[in-house]
C-alpha cells in the first residue's frame, strides 16, 4: 500500500553495507522482560514482534540480549551464548521480519550494572564498591582480566553469528546507558592502567575489538549498528541543564569514537545518552511533561551532522509526525527512534504513513495513587507498566492505558519476584 503523502519518514534508506530498510521508523530497544529463568525467548516474544512488524516499522531492535547467561542486566533478559534456543530464535526472527521489516538483535553485557538480586558476582573494567543511595542494590564488581575481556569479545561475536543464523537481519551493539562497554569508555568507571585504560584510545579499545569481531562473524553485507552515549551526562541534564557527571565520557570523546566507528564501516549509530542516574526516560510525570522535553539529543546530533556519512538514529522524545519530519528534513538524523509510543500504539508507523495520523502520542502518567510508593519506586514503576503492556501484546491482547501503577508493580512481583523492584540501573558514581 503506498503512503498517502510523500513523508520523509516513509522513504527507504540504504545502509553502508548495501542493505535497504523500507522506511525510517526505528523501533528502539526496550527490555521486554519476557524470558524465564532459562533466559530463553518465548512465545510472547514471537507474538509481540509480529504485532510490531505488522505495525509498519522499518527496523525493530530487540531488547537487551545478553552474551553471558550468568551476567544479566534486568529480570527477564534473553541470553544467547550457544545454539540451544535456535528454534525459538528462528521463530522470533521470522515474526520480527514479516511485512518487510528488519529485526535486529541488540547484544549487550551489563558489567557492574547488574542488580545483586540477579547477579551477586558482577564484573567491571575496574573493581571497587559503589557509593551513593543505590549502592546497596549492586554487588561490588570484580575487575576483568585481559583474558576475560578477550572472552567477552568472543561472546559478542558468537551471539552475533547465532543471531544471523537464526534469521535476524542485523545486530546492534549496546555501548551506552552505563553497561559494560560504556563503563570501559568512562574514565570514572575505568581506572585501568593497562592497554584497556587511561587514554581514550585505550578506553575505546574494547568497543573497537567487539565491533571488529562482530563484523568478522556476520560478514560485510549484514547490518551492524552501535548504540552510544552522546555523553555520560544524565538525560535530564542533557535536556534541561549542564549538571551532569563531571569527568565522565563527554561529547568530544563521543565524537571521536563515532568518527572511528564510521571509519570501521558501522552501518548505523544510535545516539543516546546518560547513565540513567537521573532517568528521565524512565520517569515521566505525564503527557505534558513528556511533550515539554521534546526530542532528546538534538543539539549533539546537530554537532555531528556532516562529520560522518554513517546513518544516525536519534532516539527519545519523538511523539508526533511533525517532529519526525522536522528531524529528517534538517538532516540531523536518518532514522526516527521510537519505543514507548509503539507500546501504546503498536501500529503507529502505519497510522502516520497511511492513515494521516498527525496528533501527538500521549504517554500516560503512571501512578499507584500513593505518593510515597510513586516516589519509592520511581523509574521501576514506569518500566513495570510498559513491561506489563508488552506482556499483554505478547499474549495476543491489546495494550490498556487504563491500567494503573499498582497493578504494574503487582505484575512484576508475580513475574520476577522482589528482585524486579530493585533499581535496574546504578544511581551514582560518587
TrEMBL record:
InterPro entries: Aldolase_TIM, NADH_flavin_oxidoreductase, OxRdtase_FMN_N
GO molecular function, one term: oxidoreductase activity
UniProt xrefs under Pfam families: Oxidored_FMN
Segments forming domain NADH:flavin oxidoreductase/NADH oxidase N-terminal: 11-353
Keywords for this protein: Flavoprotein, Oxidoreductase
UniProt entry tagged with the keyword Cytoplasm: no
Record-annotated membrane-spanning stretches: none
Record protein name field: NADH:flavin oxidoreductase
Amino acid at each position: 500500500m503506498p503512503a498517502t503523502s510523500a513523508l520523509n519518514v516513509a522513504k527507504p534508506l540504504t545502509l553502508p553495507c548495501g542493505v535497504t530498510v523500507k522506511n525510517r521508523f526505528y523501533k528502539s530497544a526496550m527490555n521486554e522482560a519476557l524470558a524465564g529463568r532459562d533466559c530463553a525467548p518465548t512465545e510472547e516474544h514471537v507474538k509481540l514482534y509480529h504485532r510490531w512488524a505488522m505495525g509498519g516499522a522499518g527496523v525493530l531492535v530487540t531488547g537487551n540480549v545478553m552474551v553471558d547467561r550468568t551476567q544479566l542486566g534486568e529480570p527477564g533478559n534473553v541470553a544467547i551464548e550457544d545454539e540451544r534456543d535456535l528454534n525459538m530464535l528462528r521463530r522470533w526472527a521470522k515474526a520480527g521480519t514479516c511485512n518487510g521489516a528488519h529485526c535486529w538483535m541488540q547484544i549487550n553485557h551489563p558489567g557492574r550494572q547488574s542488580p545483586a538480586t540477579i547477579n551477586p558476582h558482577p564484573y567491571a573494567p575496574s573493581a571497587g564498591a559503589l557509593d551513593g543511595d543505590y549502592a546497596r542494590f549492586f554487588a561490588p564488581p570484580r575487575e576483568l582480566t585481559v583474558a576475560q575481556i578477550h572472552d567477552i569479545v568472543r561472546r559478542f561475536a558468537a551471539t552475533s553469528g547465532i543471531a544471523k543464523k537464526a534469521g535476524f537481519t542485523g545486530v546492534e551493539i549496546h555501548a551506552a546507558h552505563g553497561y559494560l562497554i560504556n563503563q570501559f569508555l568512562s574514565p570514572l568507571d575505568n581506572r585501568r592502567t593497562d592497554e584497556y585504560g587511561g587514554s581514550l584510545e585505550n578506553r575505546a579499545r574494547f568497543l573497537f575489538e567487539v565491533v571488529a569481531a562482530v563484523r568478522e562473524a556476520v560478514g560485510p553485507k549484514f547490518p551492524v549498528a552501535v548504540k552510544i552515549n552522546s555523553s555520560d551526562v544524565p538525560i535530564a541534564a542533557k535536556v534541561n541543564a549542564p549538571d551532569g557527571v563531571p569527568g565522565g565520557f563527554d561529547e568530544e570523546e563521543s565524537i571521536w569514537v563515532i568518527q572511528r566507528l564510521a571509519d570501521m564501516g558501522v552501518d548505523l549509530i544510535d545516539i543516546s545518552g546518560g547513565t540513567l542516574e537521573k532517568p528521565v526516560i524512565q520517569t515521566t510525570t505525564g503527557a505534558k511533561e513528556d511533550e515539554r522535553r521534546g526530542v532528546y539529543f538534538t543539539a549533539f546530533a546537530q554537532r555531528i551532522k556532516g562529520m560522518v556519512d554513517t546513518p544516525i538514529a536519534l532516539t527519545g522524545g519523538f511523539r508526533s509526525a511533525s517532529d519526525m519530519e522536522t528531524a529528517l528534513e534538517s538532516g540531523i538524523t536518518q532514522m526516527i527512534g521510537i519505543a514507548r509510543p509503539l507500546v501504546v500504539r503498536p501500529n503507529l508507523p502505519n497510522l502516520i504513513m497511511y492513515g494521516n495520523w498527525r496528533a501527538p502520542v500521549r504517554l500516560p502518567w503512571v501512578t499507584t495513587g500513593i505518593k510515597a510508593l510513586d516516589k519509592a519506586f520511581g523509574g521501576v514503576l514506569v518500566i513495570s507498566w510498559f513491561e506489563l503492556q508488552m506482556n499483554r501484546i505478547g499474549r495476543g491482547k491489546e495494550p490498556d492505558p487504563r491500567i494503573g501503577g499498582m497493578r504494574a508493580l503487582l505484575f512484576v512481583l508475580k513475574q520476577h519476584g522482589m528482585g524486579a523492584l530493585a533499581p535496574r540501573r546504578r544511581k551514582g558514581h560518587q
